[in-house]
Amino acid sequence: MEKKVTMQDIADLLNISKNSVSQALSGKPGVSEDTRRLVQNTADELGYNYSDSRNQKLADKKLPRNIALIASDYAFSLKSFFGKIYLSVEKELRARGMNLFIEPINSESKKNLTLPTLLSNHEIDGILILSHISTEYISKVIGTGIPTVLIDHHSPHLQVDSILTNNRFGAFIAVEHLIQLGHREIAFVGDVEISPSYQERLEGYLLALKRYKLKPSENFILTNAQENQVGINLFFDKLQDQPSAWFCVNDGLGFLVTSVLQQKGFRVPEDVSVCSFDNGELSQITTPKITTMEIDLNHFGKKAIEQLCWRIENKLEPVQEILLPTKLIIRESTSKKKL
């Protein structure tokens, strides 16, 4: 009868402690990555058995155990959006038995390209970066060699996996909805410099107009919109003609546009329709409630962890961008154009 291979057998062969073998096979901190890899390879060569219930958790030895979540102070402050993504990340890691380390990046660290000490003081298996910090800063994080996945951000200058919203198609569907209601003069409101997501939503807006052979009017396109009533009022007052519908890149702007329109004496949606993006709280508390594109924020965390686990095991595979779909939520702020 063939002798069962034990942790002690692996320890004796490699001349290390049984505890080190246990740490290496379980993915727990305490051993170097080289030692962990050596122990795992030796266990595989000796035919170490992971099938019994006590060792079943050790069968997941190749999964990362310590994950760092990095984001700017600003991103962490947007609790209604990024807060939900963070909670979904935390939930998915907990389900997989992984540890989460959180590090906000302030403006000084961003400017000085100062990386979190946890990347050197802890044994970090993978990094998640939530939203944008700066291209230089993210490049330095990637330069550590630790597998990294971006959430809701990408750049031509960053060769790294990204989990993204399908912003172009989402915006296309939103504007198509307005066109199908008979609207032809549709305004765009957003600051495309803030995020590549907003630039992509502008592209989706233009794509929808092109698809339906509608010529975009430069007067109706505000690409440096500030999220305050003053900015929206200034844009509105400069308009020579009034659009019959507005597409806003997020719910905050949808809320502001609706408020300004109502203050100017327009009825929403009887006189003007408004559509926004994200399906956040503001779209639901506005009167009337705003038609919007829904993003499944919970899915962000799940896909990000899945991709990070895959990347750790496939470090040489080409970079991937994963696009998550959106869903049109039709509410009271959009209706057929008045004849």
The helix tally amounts to: 14
Q: Number of folding domains? A: 3
The end-to-end span amounts to 88 Å
Principal-axis shape equals: elongated
Uncertain stretches of 5 or more adjacent residues: 52-61
Helix content: 40-55%
What is the mean predicted local confidence, pLDDT?
Answer: 89
Number of E-state strands: 12
Structural class: alpha/beta
Question: What is the element layout, followed by pairings?
Answer:
Blueprint: H1 7-14, H2 18-26, H3 33-46, E1 66-72, H4 73-77, H5 79-95, E2 99-105, H6 107-112, H7 118-121, E3 126-130, H8 135-142, E4 148-151, E5 161-165, H9 167-180, E6 186-189, H10 196-211, E7 221-222, H11 229-238, E8 245-248, H12 251-263, E9 273-278, H13 281-285, E10 291-295, H14 297-313, E11 321-324, E12 326-329
Parallel strand pairs: 1-2, 1-3, 3-4, 4-5, 5-11, 6-7, 6-8, 8-9, 9-10
Antiparallel strand pairs: 10-12
Description:
This protein is an alpha/beta fold and 339 residues long. The chain folds into three domains: 7-60, 434 Repressor (Amino-terminal Domain) (Orthogonal Bundle), CATH 1.10.260; 66-165 and 297-324, Rossmann fold (3-Layer(aba) Sandwich), CATH 3.40.50.2300; 167-296, Response regulator (Rossmann fold, 3-Layer(aba) Sandwich), CATH 3.40.50. It contains 14 helices and twelve strands. A six-stranded parallel β-sheet has the order 2-1-3-4-5-11, with helices on both faces. Helix 10 links the parallel strand 6 and strand 7. It starts with 6 loop residues before the first helix and ends in a 10-residue tail after the last strand. The model is unreliable at 52-61 (pLDDT under 50).
